[in-house]
Design a protein that fits this description.
Keywords: Membrane, Transmembrane, Transmembrane helix. The chain is an alpha+beta fold. It contains 19 helices and 25 strands. The chain has 3 domains: 34 residues; 180 residues, Penicillin-binding protein 2a (Domain 2) (Alpha-Beta Complex), CATH 3.90.1310; 336 residues, Beta-lactamase (3-Layer(aba) Sandwich), CATH 3.40.710.
């Protein structure tokens, strides 16, 4: 028989167990709430109070690729190696035969140092300094920016107190190929020049952050991680052809050095689209080793330099005369070797000759200053100015390149007596390679000037493809005027004294040269030093590609014939690269004289 006395202790025990169970359940619920339901909030609170750790999750900067997807700039992984000073101590390791060995800290420091290139004393000092500042320190930087090879060697040491944070670094697999154009990055990851800078909005990544708590042994406590993910940059596709650019870069270096020039550039534009297929220059800059380059070589002079175009402008004057003043390739003018016009302006040709009854074609073939100046009187200066402006002179280009220069074309009502004539043959006006390319591409492309472009697209990380917003094409001259100009420039290639030097067997080529005087910075010109240009397109009857070769102050040959060899080789390489079909007919022979 159960008595009251025996029931009372049992009841108290059950009551006590129930209370303990209730308390335990309450603790479990609270623990689940803290570590699961509201884990993120509490981790954030603990980190805000300095009770947690964090590290950056590095986003990867986007690639820069050429027209076919070949990489011009990309990212590789480097690693920052860190130590947990609190846990750097002697530890045991089991040998291959099962024997337990104690590995002293001194031995470990020596092994680390043999990989990182530091001394054992330097590694030890890193640990000691960190513990001196904080006896519970779990972080000290061992070495930043180590290579993948070094990272693997450190991992192979199997040390429990060393860990790594990966982050991307910029690399340029082909070095100086298009280096001046592509640009470069700073050691801090900031875009400092070229396409890297102008297209940073496409390429830049957004870094993330991972926050967490660690136990005393340095191990991350499960459930305490809070991650704000990184967002990679987009892929930037350029219009240039990497292999063609490489070849033309070697060619520019060869021609520039052979001619004793300061600089050389070779530019290729696809006539019907305005896409720049090559932008090669010498001296070149290797973005992998920027400090090895002179600061003046760390950007693209194709886009940043202006120059007096010289006789290349005679084609623009002739196009305006044909399209707007009723002239034809066979129109004639009597031209002595020098002339004084009614307003007092004086113009002379580059060499003495008897009075010649030039056709407009002949003026271009012999590049007569007197001839083109005399022809120019058949239209108003304002009308000619309007044509030059529509050709894009003084307008810059649609290419987004930092520091891009703009030519100087003064309004017609500001032209003095001499300037009115000098502008017909490329003096008293400056332009740029892109402006000149745009103008000649218009002559070749049935009179339509397409906006030049260097960027094909930007593909965002989510797959969205963004193409550049380009201005509308401009109809500068009529298709018929374009056809006549193409025939005239083809006759320059076949009848000029340098014709044999630039010919490509099987192909019809159109060309014009220019020898522009260079300012001495004192209101005059440098004696005997010029900026030389040779520009032309192929095929002449159905233009596909436009090529321009420039030399800055050549000294071996000082005229534009210094560019001939490089121009011929560049045209040859372009037709090979893009498999341009050879001609099936011969071009018309136009008379040079009346």
């Amino acid at each position: 028989m159960t008595t009251r006395a025996t029931r009372s202790p049992r009841r108290r025990t059950v009551t006590a167990l129930f209370i303990v169970l209730v308390v335990l359940v309450a603790f479990i619920v609270r623990l689940v709430d803290i570590q699961v339901v509201n884990a993120d909030e509490h981790v954030e609170d603990s980190i805000a109070l300095g009770l947690g750790n964090s590290h950056t999750l590095w986003g990867t900067r986007g690639e820069i690729v050429d027209e076919s997807g070949q990489e011009l700039a990309g990212s590789i992984l480097l690693y920052d190696a860190q130590l947990s000073p609190l846990n750097v101590k002697n530890f045991q390791r089991t040998d291959a035969d099962g024997t337990k060995l104690t590995v002293p800290v001194a031995d470990t420091a020596a092994k680390i140092a043999s990989v990182t290139g530091q001394t054992a004393e330097e590694v030890t000092a890193i640990v000691e300094d960190a513990l001196a500042a904080d006896p519970d320190s779990q972080y000290a930087s061992l070495k930043k920016g180590i290579s993948t090879e070094m990272y693997r060697q450190l991992v192979d040491l199997k040390l429990p107190f060393i860990y790594f944070t990966p982050h991307p670094a910029r690399t340029y697999p082909d070095g100086a190929v298009a280096g001046n154009l592509v640009g470069f990055m700073g050691s801090d990851g900031e875009a400092l020049g070229g396409i890297e800078k102008t297209q940073d909005a496409c390429l830049a990544a957004s870094d993330g952050l991972q926050k967490f708590q660690q136990g005393k042994d340095g191990v991350v406590i499960p459930g305490t991680e809070v991650t704000d993910p990184a967002i990679d940059g987009g892929t930037l596709q350029l219009t240039i052809n990497k292999d063609l650019n490489w070849y033309l870069q070697q060619l520019a270096a060869e021609q520039g050095q052979d001619m004793g020039a300061q600089r050389a550039t070779i530019t290729v534009v696809e006539v019907k689209t305005g896409k720049i297929r090559a932008a090669a220059e010498w001296p070149a800059m290797d973005p992998n080793n920027v400090s090895a380059s002179d600061p003046a070589d760390r950007y693209s002079h194709i886009f940043t330099d202006t120059f007096e175009p010289g006789s290349t402008f005679k084609s623009l004057t002739a196009a305006a005369l044909i399209d707007g003043a009723g002239q034809t390739p066979a129109s004639t003018v009597m031209a002595p070797d020098q002339v004084t016009f009614a307003n007092g302006a004086r113009v002379r040709d580059g060499h003495p000759h008897a009075d010649l009854d030039y056709t407009l074609t002949g003026v271009l073939i012999d590049s007569s200053n007197v001839g083109i100046s005399t022809f120019s009187e058949r239209m108003s200066t304002q009308a000619r100015y309007d044509y030059l402006k529509n050709f894009g002179i003084g307008q810059g280009s649609a290419v987004d390149y930092e520091g891009q220069a703009t030519g100087t074309l003064y309004p017609a009502d500001e032209w003095g007596a001499q300037t009115a004539y000098n502008t017909t043959f490329g003096q008293a006006v400056t332009t740029t390679v892109p402006e000149l390319m745009g103008a000649y591409a218009a002559i070749a492309n049935d009179g339509t000037r397409m906006p030049l472009s260097l960027v094909e697209s930007c593909t965002k990380p989510d797959g969205t493809v963004v193409t550049p917003d380009l201005p509308d094409p401009v109809q500068v001259i009529s298709p018929e005027s374009s056809k006549q100009m193409r025939e005239m420039l083809e006759n320059v290639a076949t009848q000029a004294n340098y014709g044999q030097e630039i010919g490509v067997p099987g192909y019809r080529i159109a060309v014009k040269t220019g020898t522009g005087e260079k300012s001495d910075g004192k209101g005059g010109y440098k004696a005997g030093l010029y900026f030389t240009t040779m520009i032309g397109f192929v095929p002449a009857d159905d233009p596909q590609y436009l090529v321009a070769v420039t030399l800055d102050e050549p000294t071996v040959v000082r005229s534009s014939t210094a560019n001939a060899s490089a121009f011929q080789k560049a045209i040859t390489q372009v037709v090979k690269t893009y498999r341009v079909m050879p001609a099936t007919s011969e071009g018309p022979q136009l008379p040079a004289f009346g």
